[in-house]
Each structure stands twice: as C-alpha cells, then as structure tokens.
Amino acid sequence: MTFRPDEYRAPLEQAVRSAQEWLGSLPTRPVKPALPVEKLAAAFDRPLPDGPADPAAVVTELATLAEPGLMAIGSGRFFGWVMGGTLPAALSADWLVSAWDQNGGLRYATPATAAIEERAGRWILDLLHLPPSSAVGFATGGTMANFVGLAAGRGAVLRAAGWDVNSDGLTGAPRVTVLAGAEVHISVLLALRYLGLGEPTLVAADAQGRIRPDALAEALAAVTGPCLVVLQAGNLHSGAFDPMRQCIRLAHDAGAWVHVDGAFGLWAAASPRWTAALEGLETADSWATDAHKTLNVPYDCGIAVVADPAALRSAFGAQTSYFVQDDAGAADPMELVPELSRRARGVPVWAALRSLGRSGTVALVEGLADNARALADALAALPGVEVLNDVVFTQVSVAFGSDDRTRRVTQALIQDGTVWMSGSAWSGRAVLRISVSNWTTDAADVAVSVDAVARALAQVTAAERE
C-alpha cells in the first residue's frame, strides 16, 4: 500500500460533519439513548466484508448506526456518575493527539508531547496549590490515578520497613495496613486490589461521609507496621471533604503515607471558596484526580501527583537497552504511570487550561457548584422532596419519601429522558444522586431539569392515588 496524505481528507471531513451534527443536537436531544444495546448490537451484526471499503463511507456508516445508541453525556442536562463534557479546545487537541500519533512514553523520542505534558503538570500544581516539586503523571482515569499514588506509597512504606517490593515482591513482606473512610470510593478499592493490598480497614465517618479524626486516631494507634491512609476530597454523594490538616498530621505522626482521592473534588483547591475546607491538603503525599470530570477534557485522562518524585519513579521506572532516554536525567512520562506505550493524554489538559486560564478554571469550578446549589434549592421547594446532604460542592442527594418511592421517581425520570440523574444508596437510604460536572450546564438546563423531576414526581404521585 502507498501512503497518500490526501486519503485522510474525505474521512476526516466526514468525521467533522458527523461530530458537529452530534454536538449541535446536544442542547435539545433527550439525554437517554433511543435504542438499547441489543438493538444496536443487531444493527452492527454484519459479517466482515471480503474487501476494503471507502474510508469516508465507513465513517458515515459508523456515525449513522451508532447515533441511536449514544447517550448525550455532553448535554448540560446530564448529571450522572460525575462525568463532565468536553471543552472545545480540549476536544480539538484530542483530535490532534490522534493525528500526531505520538507514543507519549519517552522525552527523547517525542519531545513535543513530553514538553506539553510537563507544562500542563506544572500548571496543575500551581492551580491546586500542591508542592511545586511534585511529579505529575497522566494515567487512564481516576482508578489508575489512585493506583499510581498508592503504588508509590506502598513502595515507600515498605522501604521504610526494610523491604524492597520491587526486587522481593509482596510474599513475606510486612503487612501494609490501609485505613480509609467508611465511604471510600470503589476506585480506591479496585486500586488496592490490583496492588495486592486487599481490603482496607474502614474508619468511621460522620453524617456527610467525612472521615472522623478521632476514629482515625484510634485506628492508627492499633496499627503496627507499614500504613497507608486514604482521604477523600469530594464524597461521591455529599461532595464533602475530609478534614485534611488534622487527619494528615495524625497519619504522618504515625509514620503513614497519605493519599488523597480527589477524583472530582480536588479541583476545588483551585478556588479560594474552598480554602478553609481543604486546609492542609498540600501536606499529603499523593493525590489523584480525573480531568474528564471537573476539568471537562475527553476521557482517558486521570492525573496522579506524588510529592516525592523518587518514590514514583521507583514504582514505575524502567530501563532497557532499546529505550533512548534523555540525557537531562528528568523522568520520562512512562516512569510516572503504569504504561510504557501510551497516548499523549496530557495534551488536552494543556489545551483546556490554556483556553481557560486561571480565572476561567476558577469560574468553571465555581459555576458547577453554583448550579448544584441552584438545583438543590429548587428541588427542595417541591412537595415531598428532601435534600439529604449539605451541598458544599457539586453533589446533591435527594429522596422522595420511602426508598420504594424514591426508586420509582428515579425510574420515571430516566424513562422520560429529558435529563439523566443516577439512582444510588447513601446513609441507608435510596437516593437520586445529582453530579453537576458539565461546563455547559446553565440556568435554563437547571430549570428544565427541575421541571423534569417535578413531572416524574407527579407521575408517581398520580399512580399512588389510583
């Protein structure tokens, strides 16, 4: 086959048309997919053709067949699972990443993407007021960002106990105790499982899901040997932040490594509005967040920050004869995350931050929280609606009386399709959980969403009277 650059023109132009049609439909289309997966699978259930097809026709076929099964996650009326939309600069940069086709692992081989990611990392540290000497790695998502920070911590606490996990593995190693709040997120549990550390010891939390310092002190007193403490910046249901300074001081006094899971809530550190709530955050040892949530870049963009770069490179660094490494001694991107070969996923982060600037990033974060507050206030004014959490950031948890009634209202709302809010369970109750994460959500989206909840509530109320 002969490479001809002009062969890309027609399929890329068709991709642009299809993407623009999709994005243009978001303000008005229902959020839920029009067809279930079974019907989509049937539409795609065709034998592999014997010969090649026109690339532009393939793109058209793909967009046409997929469209009925796409959820409008980029809509300002999508409030499920803490998923953001995509900023224009971030989406466009992500397309360039695919076109450039750079393996983002080595500074020497792909200097442009390495330099872009390094600058994006410096901007993140500056915005979030984290130690400027920290190492920043771009992982696949929040789960792997937690994995990165906890892997660095596992190696550090075992090293302090006289054990080299890199050479000797975990068999026979001192047991690493992990302490986490009672409402620790499943992504942390998965990361601990991948690291061979098992289930954490759960520490009591208060009514908003914040770890209790007195309970942490008691748990730390019972630990003998290496220890990791996991704190939360942004509870999944309440949005609440663990008391950072007090808990980190307790953990460090006990010789523990402190990791902060800030999948969506770490971005609050960019705004002075949450300075008091996050006081002491910068004194932890590692932090994890996900740029596709609050920062609104495309998926595949977790961010791991480790205060001690040597601990991170010890966990993930690798050398072999065919790697041409930079003479400057700086860490290669592949030494900061689990993958050797990887997409240059920090480039869309650079583009998002470059387009927003400091004030725009703060406005984005504060705007999400303001919309959460507006939703909570409007929903609380509806008859029979109870907002269960203190709305301190971007999360709202709502109940409609009994658990059964809450589930029925949630189901009616999802079937309506105007908005998407997730059903969940929190503090022993069924809830409708609202995560405000999309940069496009505005006052009109809030009003339409409240009306949709009111319709679902009225539908359930009418059925109860029959």
TrEMBL record:
GO molecular function per UniProt: aromatic-L-amino-acid decarboxylase activity; pyridoxal phosphate binding
Residues recorded with modification N6-(pyridoxal phosphate)lysine: K293
Co-factor(s): pyridoxal 5'-phosphate
A Gene Ontology biological process term: carboxylic acid metabolic process
First and last residue of the signal peptide: none
UniProt keywords, alphabetically: Decarboxylase, Lyase, Pyridoxal phosphate
Domain of life the protein comes from: Bacteria
InterPro entries (UniProt xref): Aromatic_deC, PyrdxlP-dep_de-COase, PyrdxlP-dep_Trfase, PyrdxlP-dep_Trfase_major, PyrdxlP-dep_Trfase_small
Family: Belongs to the group II decarboxylase family.
PANTHER family for this protein: GROUP II PYRIDOXAL-5-PHOSPHATE DECARBOXYLASE, MIP05841P
Protein name: Pyridoxal-dependent decarboxylase
